[in-house]
Design brief:
By secondary structure, this protein is α+β, with helices and mostly antiparallel strands. It is 43% helix and 18% strand. The strands form four sheets. The protein has a four-stranded mixed sheet with strand order 6-9-10-11, sandwiched between helices.
Length: 269
Amino acid sequence: MIQDSRAIIENLSYINELVEKSNINLRKYKGLENIHVQSCYSNGREQLYKYDSDTGKKKYIKRDEISGYANIIQRDYEAVVNKKLISMQKILSRVIKELPKTELIEIMSIYDKQPASKRNLIVPMIESNEEYIARWLEEHSGGKNSYPIDNGVYTAKGEYVRSKSEKILADLFEKYSIPYCYEPSFRLNNGNVVYPDFVILNVRLRKTIYWEHLGLIDREDYANRNFKKLDDYDMSGLELGDNLIITMESDARGFDSRRFERKIKKYCL
């Protein structure tokens, strides 16, 4: 299974934020006496005790006294959370250091490092990226939508597409050397065939992703029609933010290439 290292890095970043917040919370309780509130059950009823860590003595806490120990209870909770967060932080940091050793390139490089005379006799465990891309392109051909293109534009690669927005997207895929096809066919689970704007390959993850650009979302009939399409996609195994990416524009809010480029970097590389 190919790991998405960026998800792990994002997780560590969030844990780092929580550790910083936890450290701040703990400092609020610095100086409190070294006592704790312990809980036990007797005859099915919870009983609370004040435990002095220095003397080892316990004292029963009456129910109407418990609110006076709120800071002690919160401090002890924060201490347990802090310890767990720091443990998670250390584990994730170690994992991230080791991640490069788990990339598929490590396996492919074993074949690449063999002498040419041996490579000719070896059947590699994993296809090279070049072989995988070539096979993927054969399996995901474009140009399947037979609806005429009126007043289209050409991409940098010489493809004829329906809009300037699609041209910009295609050129961004080309800029980042992302294999893609324009207007492939996709069969929904109801048997109908649709033609997404693009199908692209995340080479690092060897993952196929469909990309739809909705250019007229402020027009009610267009929006309603495409909302139904998105529901059809979801019921057919294409999940938004996973193997389906949606970009949008309207008359009021035009094509934001920088925002869409961030999506490409997040999902496609």
